[in-house]
Every structure is written in structure tokens, then in C-alpha cells.
């Protein structure tokens, strides 16, 4: 059996009793970083020294078959550096391979930056979309946000601190300056911070530099835009194109948000360029 074990995302006190018991009895641990796994077990007072297998983003597909075969005869505990394996972390290819091979997969629940950020955000939590890390490339990132402009669910993103200001500025361009958002920094740690404001205001704040692990929670589209004419719709399409979106993606987003014809918007925008 494969056991996906959630680990603390910053506060060691969040380690569950089940995690400690499981690691205390484990014979094989597949870890994103074996050094981090050893440090965690020592910090938790675990004297057990299981066999350690490195399983990270660069080798997980190649290692999946080996780990699955081991899991036929004994439990293999899977750890990432923080949080739940397979959620924006190594683990998905292994679970996919195990499912295909008929090997049981279970999980030990625990800390989740995604769910904690969503819970403390003050934004709707009944429906949400986790988008992971946006691409590092500015043009692709702007096109991504333009394509998500009509998304009505609350959206959760991860981001690195040195790209935060640029990402928030691109979000403001794609979603609108006044779209509500929340930046959650250093969750569960000593300097935890939750900052709520408009995307434009958050981008200005982040321009001074921010440190730590970052989650961004963005309000979903609040409904259809108050646009009834193709001319106004075309203007919105062109604004998204100017922000970096592809024409077809921009036309689709505006059509979804307004109810106007995607074909008419696309053709009108082409003619206006």
C-alpha cells in the first residue's frame, strides 16, 4: 500500500499523531528530499530509521514503477517537504501508476496551505479552483489570467515571493484592478500574515518586496458584465489582448462574462486591430 502523509507546512506542532505513529513503524519512506525527511523524524522524536528513497519532480516518473512494486509487499510512506503529496508537489505520477497497477493508495490528512488560505481569506469557499503556480513567463502568465477572467469560483494560487509583485500586477490587468484578493504569507509560522485588498493595491504593496511562502486567493467573477453591445464587448476583448491574452482566449472570456457571441466578438476585434 502507498500512504501519502501530510506534513507540517511551517509549525511542527501541526504534525498529527497518525503521522508520528506511521513514521515510527515505516519500513520504506519515499521522500521529496531525504534530508528533510530525516530532519522531520528527528524533530518529532522518531528513532525509527526506515529505508529512504528519493522521489522528486525530476525522477518521480522513472521511479514510480519501482515504488509501486515495493508497495505490493509493504507499506510505502510518501513525504514531501511540506503539506500533502501530489497537491502541487511530487506524488501524482506515483498515484497514477499505483491506481493502474491495482495497488491501494491512502492518505493521512493534515496541514494544507490551499485550504488554510481559502478558509482565512474571507472570500466565498463553497466553490473554488486551485491553479497552482502560475507560469514564470510574463506573456503566458498574462494570457492565463485573461483566460480566467470569467471564472466565477474563488481561485487559489501559489507564488514565489520574488515574482509576487509582477504576478499581482498581471492579475490586476487580467481580472481588473478592483477585484478582491488576499495574500497569505508564512501560514502557520511565527510571522504569518493575511493581507486583504484589491489586486491593484496588493500589487503596489508587494512592489516593496515580500518574503516567505505565498498563497494568493482571488475572488471569482461576480457575474455577467453589464455590457450589451458588441462594440463594448470588442473593447473589452482588445483590453485583454493588450494585457497579453491571445485573441481567441480574450473573446471566449468576454463572451462567457457577457453572454455576447464569441464569434462576433472575435471577428469584431480582428477587424478593429
TrEMBL record:
InterPro entries in the cross-refs: 4pyrrol_Mease (IPR000878), 4pyrrol_Methylase_sf (IPR035996), 4pyrrole_Mease_sub1 (IPR014777), 4pyrrole_Mease_sub2 (IPR014776), rRNA_ssu_MeTfrase_I (IPR008189), RsmI_HTH (IPR053910)
GO cellular component terms attached to this protein's record: cytoplasm
SUPFAM superfamilies: Tetrapyrrole methylase
EC number(s) given by UniProt: 2.1.1.198
Catalytic reaction list: cytidine(1402) in 16S rRNA + S-adenosyl-L-methionine = 2'-O-methylcytidine(1402) in 16S rRNA + S-adenosyl-L-homocysteine + H(+)
Keyword entries, A-Z: Cytoplasm, Methyltransferase, rRNA processing, S-adenosyl-L-methionine, Transferase
The keyword Nucleotide-binding belongs to this UniProt entry's keyword annotation: no
Chief site of localization: cytoplasm
Gene3D superfamilies per UniProt: Cobalt-precorrin-4 Transmethylase, Domain 1, Methyltransferase, Cobalt-precorrin-4 Transmethylase, Domain 2
Source taxon at top rank: Bacteria
One Pfam family here: TP_methylase
Molecular function terms from GO: rRNA (cytosine-2'-O-)-methyltransferase activity
Major enzyme class: transferase
Chain ranges of the Tetrapyrrole methylase domain: 1-202
Domain RsmI HTH: 235-273
Subcellular location: Cytoplasm
Entry function: Catalyzes the 2'-O-methylation of the ribose of cytidine 1402 (C1402) in 16S rRNA.
PANTHER family reported for this sequence: RIBOSOMAL RNA SMALL SUBUNIT METHYLTRANSFERASE I (PTHR46111:SF1)
Family according to the record: Belongs to the methyltransferase superfamily. RsmI family.
Name of the protein: Ribosomal RNA small subunit methyltransferase I
Organism: Curtobacterium luteum
Amino acid at each position: 500500500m502507498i500512504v501519502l502523509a501530510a506534513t507540517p507546512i511551517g509549525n511542527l506542532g501541526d504534525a498529527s499523531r497518525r503521522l508520528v505513529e506511521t513514521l515510527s513503524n515505516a519500513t520504506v519512506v519515499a521522500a521529496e528530499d531525504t534530508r528533510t525527511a530525516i530532519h522531520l523524524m528527528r524533530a518529532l522524536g522518531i528513532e525509527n530509521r526506515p529505508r529512504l528513497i528519493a522521489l522528486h519532480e525530476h525522477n518521480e516518473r522513472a521511479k514510480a514503477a519501482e515504488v509501486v512494486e515495493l508497495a505490493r509487499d509493504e507499506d510505502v510512506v510518501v513525504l514531501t517537504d511540506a503539506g500533502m503529496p501530489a497537491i502541487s508537489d511530487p506524488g501524482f505520477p506515483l498515484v497514477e501508476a499505483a491506481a493502474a497497477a491495482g495497488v491501494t493508495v491512502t492518505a493521512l490528512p493534515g496541514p494544507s496551505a490551499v485550504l488554510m488560505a481559502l478558509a482565512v481569506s474571507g472570500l466565498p469557499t463553497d466553490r473554488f479552483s486551485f491553479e497552482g503556480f502560475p507560469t514564470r513567463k510574463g506573456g503566458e502568465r498574462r494570457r492565463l489570467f485573461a483566460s480566467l477572467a470569467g471564472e466565477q469560483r474563488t481561485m487559489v494560487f501559489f507564488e514565489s515571493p520574488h515574482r509576487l509583485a509582477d504576478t499581482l500586477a498581471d492579475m490586476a490587468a487580467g481580472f481588473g484592478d478592483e477585484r478582491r484578493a488576499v495574500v497569505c504569507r508564512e501560514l502557520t509560522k511565527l510571522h504569518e500574515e493575511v493581507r486583504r485588498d484589491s489586486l491593484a493595491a496588493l500589487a503596489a504593496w508587494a512592489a516593496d518586496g515580500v518574503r516567505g511562502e505565498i498563497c494568493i486567493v482571488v475572488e471569482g467573477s461576480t457575474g455577467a458584465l453589464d455590457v450589451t453591445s458588441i462594440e463594448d464587448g470588442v473593447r473589452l476583448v482588445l483590453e485583454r489582448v493588450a494585457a497579453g491574452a491571445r485573441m481567441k482566449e480574450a473573446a471566449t472570456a468576454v463572451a462567457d462574462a457577457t453572454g455576447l457571441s464569441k464569434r462576433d466578438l472575435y471577428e469584431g476585434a480582428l477587424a478593429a486591430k
